[in-house]
Amino acid sequence: MASEEVRAFVETRRVARMATVDASGHPHVVPICYVYDGSRLYSAVDEKPKRFAPNALRRLVNIRNNPTICLIVDEYDEDWNRLRFVIIHGTAEIALAGSEHAHALDLLRKKYPQYRTMVLTEKRNPVIAITPTKIVSWGTF
User: Fold this and answer.
1) Nearest 10 degrees: CA dihedral of 112, 113, 114, 117?
2) Looking at the whole model, is its pTM more than 0.85?
3) DSSP secondary-structure letter at 119?
4) Please, what CATH class does the domain formed by 4-139 belong to?
5) Are β-strands 84-95 and 35-36 bridged in parallel, bridged antiparallel, or unpaired?
6) What is the pLDDT of residues 46-104, one digit of tens each?
7) DSSP SS3 for 20
8) φ and ψ at 97, to 5 degrees?
9) Cα–Cα distance list, 8 to 39, 64, 95, 130, 139 (Å)
10) Contact 104, 35 (CB under 8 A)
11) What is the C-alpha to C-alpha distance for residues 84 and 68, in angstroms, rounded to an integer?
């Protein structure tokens, strides 16, 4: 991460917006819960209501076709002198099973109490693993 302040900001925010691109070049943006372990960011397809089966979600289909993603983590304030954001460009992979899947779910359960009561499995709940390639921050850091 760019600096300790930027890293702390990213680690402590609760929601990011993740953009993927479909095969026709159309963007798709979704809010995500996420964690950062110092080298990668993780977001699980969790048990919140969805219109499609997990592996059919547009974000996963898009990542399979084009792993380039972008995240924004921001903080709004009515005092515009206190606005700030971090944009993270990266490459995403879908972790379907194994130690990385378990590592991500462990971190997510530590950050979000809601995950502790969800039954998250390798079979039903893929994890998106994001490796940052470029980080841009703006605001009071």
Assistant:
1) 130
2) yes
3) -
4) mainly beta
5) unpaired
6) 666 556 666 778 999 999 999 999 999 999 999 999 999 999 999 999 987 789 999 99
7) strand
8) -160, 175
9) 13, 30, 25, 18, 14
10) yes
11) 23
Q: Do residues 130 and 69 make contact, with C-beta atoms less than 8 angstroms apart?
A: yes
Q: Give the start-to-end residue ranges of the domains of the chain.
A: 4-139
Q: Are 15 and 72 in contact (CB under 8 A)?
A: no
Q: Position of tokens 């979704």? A: 30
Q: Residue 132: name the closest of 81, 77, 85, 72 by CA.
A: 72
User: What token pair was written down for 41?
Assistant: 């960011």
Beta bridge partners of 71: 18, 88
Label the pairing between strands 68-75 and 84-95: antiparallel
Residue 4 exposure: Cα atoms within 13 Å on the Cβ side: 0
Number of residues assigned to the chain: 141
